[in-house]
Structures are given as C-alpha cells and as structure tokens.
C-alpha cells in the first residue's frame, strides 16, 4: 500500500505496569487497539516490550530473592512466558498473530546472525504478523546483552528498516530536567541534534521499575536517528499516541532523522575489508551500476576466497575492476555451486535458500 510505514513501538516497564507492581492489562489492550488500527490501514508494526522481570515478580507473587543477576534472570525466564501470552491474547482480540523474538547484542554484531534476525523480522512483517521483541534476559550475560530495551529498540528499528521509532514511557517526553525532581522542567518538543548538553539533562530511572531512564532513550534516539529513523519519546497513556506519531501530529519529543540514511545504514553493516571476491559478467555489471539492481547468481562467473554468509565481499569484473562491496547472502561454497544459475534453481541445487539474490542492493556500496 502507498504511504505504508514501519513503526517500532517500545513499551517500557513504566508503561506496562502504569507504575504499579503488576501489568496493567486494561492499559495494554488500548495500545494494542491502536496498533491493530494502524495495521488495518496497511502499516507495519513491531513491538519491543519490556516487563518480563515485572511479570515474573507478579507471577511468583513477589518472591524474596537475593539482589543478584541470577535472580533477575530467573524472574525474566518466568515472566517472559506470561508476558508473551498476554501480548498473544490481546492481539488475538483483533485477529492478529504475533511472533516472539528474543535477541541479544550478539545477534546484531555477528553478520550472519544479524541477517538471520533481519530475515525473520521481515518474513513476519510480510505475513502481517506482529513481531514482539524483548532481550533474551534469561541467557544474556553482561558481555552479550544490550542491557536496556531503549537501545534494543533502536537496533530492532534498524533490523526492521523502520521509518519511525516510538519510545513510550511514563513521562510526556524529554524534559529540560527530570520532572520528578525539578518542578521547573519543561518539555522539549523537537531535537535537531543530540549533543553533550542534551545528554546531561537526561537522568537515570528513579522509579525502580525501568532500566536506564532518559539517558538510554537518548542513546537509542542517537543510534536510530543516525540511521535515518525518526524517533519520538512520548507518554504511553496519552490517548491516540501511536496514531498521532504515525500521522506526524506533534506529540512528546521528536528527534529528526538524519540525512543520507541509506548510506549510514549500509555503513553500519560494513567495516571489515572484503573477505573474498565474486567475479561477475558484463550484464551483471550493467545491472548493478546502471539499474541499481541486486546481484543474482546468473551474473556470477566465479568466486574467490572462503567466507561465510553475511560477510562483506567484493564484486569485481573479469578484468579485475572493483565494482561494488556488499554483504553476501550465501557462503562461498554455496555460491560456487550456484554460479551462473537461475535464481529459481537455488533451492534445488543447495537444498535450501536465502532468497533469489546473492547480494541485495540495500546491502551494497558501489565503488
Ligand atoms: N530529562 C528528563 N526528562 C524526562 N524524564 C526523565 C529525565 N531524566 C530522567 N527522567 C526519568 O526517566 C524516567 C523514564 O525512564 P524509565 O524509568 O527507564 O522508564 P521506562 O520503563 O519507560 O524505560 C522518568 O520516569 C523520569 O523520572
Ligand atoms: N528486558 C527487561 C527490561 C529492560 C528495560 O530496559 O526496561 P525498561 O527501561 O522498562 O524499558 C524486561 O523485560 O524486564
């Protein structure tokens, strides 16, 4: 549908519990209703949900546990299942299916895992299933976790190729100081640029429910806005807030998406030097350079080097000309088997497939 947008909605523990010790079902169903309405209009919605730890506490009737990481992981393991059941129940009221994705930082930093997560997310969205994402708290160690769902939602927004990221919390937006402690704090409606002065006004969470407060929301806004995604921080209990953000009605604090988003997104994928070469014919060079096409197996004439799926490789001509660099959707062994073949043959030859293209145009930088 024309004008269809992808929106990632992050709901903090503060929103899901309404500041109480239990999940506020009546409030969550209202947010689900807004999401269902937007999905019916052709938009794509991704939910990033906190609340597993709070749900675990509620489910186990507020147990007396030592203040350790293991206790939090225990609570998250118990609570995540109640939490996902709740999302499932509430979306089913509107006949919408959900798909659970539990991620860690490791899923974003390893290229192959990044691509796998991105494929799953896209497949869910293509099939009108709402992805419901949380950090995999039960297994995430200090080294591999994102640590807070604000930053996780920014990564999810990049994965989903989102237009907008909405961080719903218990305040109307970002204030000039923490409104809980400073009665003179004013709402900041627009942020053009995130700088040190702005970072300083954002404090941590004082409610004891959330993780990170406004500080992690600003970090998330920085990551997402640099990737060309508009970010809004707003109150979860503001009537019609999700629809307002989708319709660009002024609400909460809006961070402008930065320019040249595609290149920034691509750069996020790149970094290491190419791990191998894909040699292509003249037809493929024309398609890539003149028509901005993805690279298909048909245009390949050879593969050099050993690399895994998700690795950055060079596309070059038979004469050795550097054409483009891009993320290969297949490993080098698989590519050697499908050199020169039609895309329809891929699954027959390999016994599996990751789609018809070898390197997608969105994952490619022309040299
Ligand atoms: N400059 C600020 N503007 C608004 N809120 C702030 C600011 N600095 C700190 N905060 C605090 O951040 C809290 C929201 O973050 P947090 O408790 O982590 O909630 P969530 O569960 O929604 O992520 C607010 O309740 C507020 O006390
Ligand atoms: N993953 C954790 C939430 C972590 C988090 O960032 O919480 P919040 O600040 O409330 O968004 C959970 O499900 O309890």
From TrEMBL:
<dbReference type="InterPro" id="IPR036974">
    <property type="entry name" value="PUA_sf"/>
</dbReference>
<dbReference type="InterPro" id="IPR001048">
    <property type="entry name" value="Asp/Glu/Uridylate_kinase"/>
</dbReference>
<keyword id="KW-0547">Nucleotide-binding</keyword>
<keyword id="KW-0067">ATP-binding</keyword>
<comment type="similarity">
    <text>Belongs to the glutamate 5-kinase family.</text>
</comment>
<comment type="pathway">
    <text>Amino-acid biosynthesis; L-proline biosynthesis; L-glutamate 5-semialdehyde from L-glutamate: step 1/2.</text>
</comment>
<dbReference type="InterPro" id="IPR036393">
    <property type="entry name" value="AceGlu_kinase-like_sf"/>
</dbReference>
<feature type="binding site">
    <location>
        <begin position="211"/>
        <end position="217"/>
    </location>
    <ligand>
        <name>ATP</name>
    </ligand>
</feature>
<dbReference type="GO" id="GO:0005524">
    <property type="term" value="F:ATP binding"/>
</dbReference>
<feature type="binding site">
    <location>
        <position position="50"/>
    </location>
    <ligand>
        <name>substrate</name>
    </ligand>
</feature>
<keyword id="KW-0418">Kinase</keyword>
<keyword id="KW-0641">Proline biosynthesis</keyword>
<protein>
    <recommendedName>
        <fullName>Glutamate 5-kinase</fullName>
        <ecNumber>2.7.2.11</ecNumber>
    </recommendedName>
</protein>
<keyword id="KW-0028">Amino-acid biosynthesis</keyword>
<dbReference type="InterPro" id="IPR019797">
    <property type="entry name" value="Glutamate_5-kinase_CS"/>
</dbReference>
<comment type="function">
    <text>Catalyzes the transfer of a phosphate group to glutamate to form L-glutamate 5-phosphate.</text>
</comment>
<dbReference type="InterPro" id="IPR011529">
    <property type="entry name" value="Glu_5kinase"/>
</dbReference>
<keyword id="KW-0808">Transferase</keyword>
<dbReference type="GO" id="GO:0003723">
    <property type="term" value="F:RNA binding"/>
</dbReference>
<dbReference type="Pfam" id="PF00696">
    <property type="entry name" value="AA_kinase"/>
</dbReference>
<feature type="binding site">
    <location>
        <begin position="169"/>
        <end position="170"/>
    </location>
    <ligand>
        <name>ATP</name>
    </ligand>
</feature>
<feature type="binding site">
    <location>
        <position position="149"/>
    </location>
    <ligand>
        <name>substrate</name>
    </ligand>
</feature>
<dbReference type="InterPro" id="IPR002478">
    <property type="entry name" value="PUA"/>
</dbReference>
<feature type="binding site">
    <location>
        <position position="137"/>
    </location>
    <ligand>
        <name>substrate</name>
    </ligand>
</feature>
<dbReference type="GO" id="GO:0004349">
    <property type="term" value="F:glutamate 5-kinase activity"/>
</dbReference>
<dbReference type="InterPro" id="IPR001057">
    <property type="entry name" value="Glu/AcGlu_kinase"/>
</dbReference>
<dbReference type="InterPro" id="IPR005715">
    <property type="entry name" value="Glu_5kinase/COase_Synthase"/>
</dbReference>
<keyword id="KW-0963">Cytoplasm</keyword>
<dbReference type="InterPro" id="IPR041739">
    <property type="entry name" value="G5K_ProB"/>
</dbReference>
<dbReference type="InterPro" id="IPR015947">
    <property type="entry name" value="PUA-like_sf"/>
</dbReference>
<feature type="binding site">
    <location>
        <position position="10"/>
    </location>
    <ligand>
        <name>ATP</name>
    </ligand>
</feature>
<dbReference type="GO" id="GO:0055129">
    <property type="term" value="P:L-proline biosynthetic process"/>
</dbReference>
<dbReference type="Pfam" id="PF01472">
    <property type="entry name" value="PUA"/>
</dbReference>
<dbReference type="GO" id="GO:0005829">
    <property type="term" value="C:cytosol"/>
</dbReference>
<feature type="domain" description="PUA">
    <location>
        <begin position="276"/>
        <end position="359"/>
    </location>
</feature>
